[in-house]
C-alpha cells in the first residue's frame, strides 16, 4: 500500500482534514496526532473498516478500540445510557486525555469493541485531532499508531517508521504534548474503576466522583510480580507485554547512590542506560539517554516513548533503567515502563557502609 504523508504546517489544517475525511469515508486508515499519542484511525461504525486496524498494527482482535469523537452530541447514539457520573467527568475533563467506558449501543460493531458489550469513548483536545474529527463527523476508532507491542508513537517520525506501507495516510502534526496514553475509567461497574493510569490522575478522578477504585492488575506490585497475568486486567490491552523496545529492559530501584552504582557496574559497551537529567553525568556519554528532569515529571512523560525507541537505533543488547518518580503522572510513566520491562524490576536493599 502506498502511504501518503501530509504535514499540518506545510499543507494546512483544512487540506489535512479533507484528506482524512476522504480516507475514512472510503474505509481506509489514517494516522493523526492527539494530545496523548498519535492515533491510527478508521471509520469505527463499520466493522469491515475498523478491522483493518488490527491487521495494520498486528494487534490481537480481542483488544478493543477507542472511539474518538469531535463533539459531545455524537456520544448518545453510541451508548445505551450516559450515567450522571459520566456527565460530571465530561464536564471536568473533555475534551482531553480521559477515555470513558460505557455500555455500547447496537450501532457499534463488535469488531470495534473487541467482542465486548461495552465501548471506550474519548474526545481529544488536540486541535488537529479535534478538527479532523469534526470534519469527518463520524466516530473514528483509533488505537495508538504503533505496531502492536512497540512503544507508542509521539512524533510523526515514529509513525512513519512503524506504519509506512500499512496505512493510506499519515498526518504530521509535530510532537504530541503529553506523551502517554489517556487515562481509562470504566463506568459500567457498580463503582467506577480506573483501568489505565494516564495524564488525568486517580486523585483528579476521585475529586470529581468520590469513590474510584483502581484495577488491581495495573498496580506496580501486580506488574512486577506478574500477578497481572493472574488478575486479568479489565482493559484487555493491559495484559500484553507492551511499549517494548527490542532489547530486554530492567528497572532498578533503591537509593540514588545504589541505583547509579549498580547500573554503572553492570553496564558494558552494548548496554543502553535510561536515566534522568539529574544523574546524566554519572554514566558513560554513549548509549545513555536522559528522559527528562525529576523536577518536571511531565517532561519525562513527554520523552518516554521516544527514549525507548532510541535504544532500538543504538542496537543495544539490553537496557538498564532507573526507577522514575511515581507521583501524579509518574503513575502512568511507571506503568508504561514496567510493561516495557515485562515486570523485570530489581529492588536494592541499601547496606550500611563503613566510612
Ligand atoms: O490516548 C489514547 O487513549 C490513545 C489515543 C490515540 O487516543 N489511544 C490508545 O488506544 O491508547 P489503544 O488501543 O492503544 O489503547 C486502548 C486501551 C487498550 O488497553 C484496550 O484494551 C482498552 O483501551 N479498552 C478499549 N475498549 C475497552 C473496553 N470496552 N473495556 C475495557 N478496556 C477497553
Ligand atoms: Mg496502544
Task: Please provide a written account of the structure.
The chain is an alpha/beta fold and 355 residues long. The chain has 2 domains: 4-225, DHBP synthase, CATH 3.90.870; 249-347, Rossmann fold (3-Layer(aba) Sandwich), CATH 3.40.50. It has helices at residues 8-11, 13-25, 47-57, 84-93, 127-136, 156-163, 202-209, 220-224, 227-231, 256-266, 297-314, 330-340; strands spanning 4-7, 30-32, 39-43, 66-68, 98-103, 118-122, 140-141, 169-172, 183-186, 193-196, 213-214, 249-253, 271-275, 288-290, 318-322, 345-347. Strands 1-8-2-3-7-4-6-5-9-10-11 form an 11-stranded mixed beta sheet, with helices on both faces. The protein has a 5-stranded parallel beta sheet with strand order 14-13-15-12-16. A hairpin with a 6-residue loop joins strand 2 (30-32) and strand 3. Helix 2 (13-25) crosses helix 5 (127-136). The chain is globular, with a radius of gyration of 20 Å. The termini are far apart. The model has no long low-confidence stretch (mean pLDDT 94). The protein binds threonylcarbamoyladenylate and magnesium ion.
Strand content: 15-25%
SSE pattern, N- to C-terminal: EHHEEHEHEEHEHEEEHEHHEHEEHEHE
Low-confidence stretches: none
Mean pLDDT: 94
The counted number of beta strands is: 16
Heterogens:
threonylcarbamoyladenylate, magnesium ion
What is the CATH homologous superfamily assignment of the largest domain? DHBP synthase
Strand order of the largest sheet: 1-8-2-3-7-4-6-5-9-10-11
Please estimate the helix content: 25-40%
